[in-house]
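Tokens in:
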């Protein structure tokens, strides 16, 4: 029989201890609890359970609940992604259908289209210039050290043509549209959604997709080639100025090597990439904005998610188009 230490408190207040049997009672998993005699000596009581032992089951249960919720959230990610992709495809199909119908019936909202094109141009042209110039200069700086070691300074123009035209311009234009333009579109639709303007339009028989999404979609498609050509011009100009002024390269050598490696098909592919990026940005931003809920916080979440999804979609689309370009139109000297 196990023995426990018992504390006795007699009436005179003098503390005494003795060891007695614990009456064979079963304790907790950590061992039997000691019996403590009360102050009057009339009986023995159990001491209070420690806070750690008292709340341990609750903490374990809370941890199990959190783990379960996390696993459930992770398991639902593919389902939510597939659902979002499906809604995006449906929105894209509706936009194409309304575009064709309105173009044939000559009922396109040209005024709204021009307003949106001008608005999106204002929010993207200055960032495009600020990104294109450093990018073109960066290509020249990075490639100049390598070609100088090889004694082939004349290839700086080729590096600028390949870097700026084939990859730099479409990616820069896509990221600008996925950032600035996507934020403008998603915030506009999100504000309309939380004010229930979209529901009011549906009640009176006006389709928000036809009235609001189509003009922004077409505006981005019109703006994207202009933005791409602007970035190509600014980036190539910055690369040319830096190559001539810093690397002491002649003007003729730069443009000769530039034209040798950068062909017209590269420009067309760059414009095509930018148009694909514009379509992705318009659909994703409109979808996220129209589905905004929860007041201003919901609008902010819609803007953030639209920017993230646009950037990811642009990167994967660029990879796929670049692979197709490399397969069917490999880079070669003109």
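Residues out:
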């Amino acid at each position: 029989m196990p023995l426990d230490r018992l504390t006795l408190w007699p009436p005179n207040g003098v503390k005494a201890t003795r060891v007695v049997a614990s009456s064979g009672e079963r304790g907790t998993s950590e061992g039997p609890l000691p019996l403590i005699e009360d102050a009057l000596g009339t009986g023995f009581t159990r001491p209070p359970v420690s806070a750690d032992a008292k709340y341990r089951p609750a903490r374990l249960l809370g941890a199990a609940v959190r783990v379960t919720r996390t696993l459930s959230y992770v398991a639902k990610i593919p389902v939510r992604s597939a659902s979002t992709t499906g809604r995006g495809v449906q929105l894209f199909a509706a936009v194409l259908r309304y575009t064709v119908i309105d173009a044939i019936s000559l009922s396109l909202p040209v005024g709204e289209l021009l307003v949106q094109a001008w608005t999106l141009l204002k929010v993207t042209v200055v960032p495009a210039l600020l990104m294109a110039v450093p990018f073109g200069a960066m290509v020249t700086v990075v490639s100049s050290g390598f070609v100088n070691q090889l004694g082939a300074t004349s290839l700086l123009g080729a590096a600028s043509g390949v870097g700026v035209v084939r990859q730099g311009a479409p990616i820069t234009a896509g990221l600008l549209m996925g950032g600035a333009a996507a934020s403008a579109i998603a915030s506009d639709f999100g504000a309309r959604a939380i004010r229930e303007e979209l529901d009011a339009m549906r009640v009176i028989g006006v389709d928000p997709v036809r009235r609001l999404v189509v003009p922004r979609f077409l505006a981005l498609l019109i703006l994207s080639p202009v933005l791409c050509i602007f970035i190509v011009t600014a980036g190539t100009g910055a690369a040319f100025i830096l190559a001539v002024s810093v690397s002491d390269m002649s003007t003729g050598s730069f443009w000769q090597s530039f034209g040798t490696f950068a062909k017209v098909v590269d420009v067309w592919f760059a414009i095509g990439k930018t148009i694909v990026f514009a379509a992705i940005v318009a659909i994703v931003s409109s979808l996220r904005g129209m589905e905004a809920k929860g007041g201003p916080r919901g609008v902010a979440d819609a803007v953030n998610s639209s920017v993230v999804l646009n950037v990811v979609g642009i990167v994967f689309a660029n990879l796929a188009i670049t692979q197709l370009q490399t397969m069917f139109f490999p880079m070669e000297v003109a």
